[in-house]
Amino acid sequence: MNKFSEIQDKAEKNGGFFLSADADSISISREMLSKYVSQGKLERVQRGVYLLPEYFEDEMFAIQIAVPNAVFSHNTALYLQDLSDRTLLNFEVTIPKGYNGTNLRKKGIDVYAVPKEIHSLGVIEVKTIYGNYVRAYEVERTLCDILKPRAKMDISVVTDAFKMYTRRKKRDLSKLSRYSQILGVEKKVRSYMEVLL
User: Fold this and answer.
1) Burial class (CB in 10 A: 0-12, 13-18, 19+), 74
2) Which of these, 115, 76, 124, 80, lies nearest to 95 by C-alpha position?
3) Alpha carbons 63 and 71: distance in angstroms, whole number
4) pLDDT tens digits along 36-47
């Protein structure tokens, strides 16, 4: 098996993406990766992330690969879970406090930082429109997050999300209540739910 075949094999198992961090495991130099880019065999998506040209770039998946501890949240999580029909202007992620989100912000991504203890609360895997799985907050956690003052959410987006949630057959009101207590938005959640249920 030649070196490019090894790259292809690894990339195909990863939605078409290949990481420069994986190059060492198959003894491929950074110069060789650059050569494959110039030959059109790979596309450089971002620093350290490459894509086979026959694959569509899934921006969400690329972000997840580059920053594994980023969790899609707020409007992005609403969109991924069909609680918003608005087009995303930019992605929103939540990272643990202490992690440097500068590179994400430079790419136009809105970044929220939360204490490590609550960062993993309610994380699930959700499929993107390209069929790749990314980490996002589940619906109940997202509904709590969008009520926090620093989220600066459009009130109509919040109201629509709660309306859509109450119409769902699969909803977990006890989980919503528990998350609202942990995240300090219990009164706000209760006021929305009392009106809509």
Assistant:
1) buried
2) 115
3) 10
4) 888 888 888 877
Mutual angle of helices 186-196 and 173-182, in 10-degree steps: 150
Q: Which of 67, 63, 66 is nearest to 90 (CA)?
A: 63
pLDDT tens sequence across 139-191: 999 999 999 987 788 889 999 999 999 999 889 999 999 999 999 999 999 99
Distance CA 120, CA 137 (A): 9
**Sheet containing strand 123-127, strands side by side:** 110-114, 92-96, 71-72, 133-137, 123-127
Check: CB of residue 129 under 8 Å from CB of residue 161.
no
Domain extent listing, the chain: 3-57, 61-196
Sheet of 43-46, strand order: 17-19, 49-51, 43-46
128's torsion region: left (phi>0), alpha (psi -120 to 50) or beta? beta
Q: Count of alpha carbons within 13 Å of 24, Cβ hemisphere only?
A: 2
CATH number for domain 3-57, candidates 1.10.10, 2.60.120, 1.10.3470, 1.20.120: 1.10.10
Alpha carbon distances (Å) from 120 to 70, 73, 102, 138: 10, 12, 21, 11
Token pair for residue 181?
């207590």
128 neighbors 65 (Cβ within 8 angstroms): no
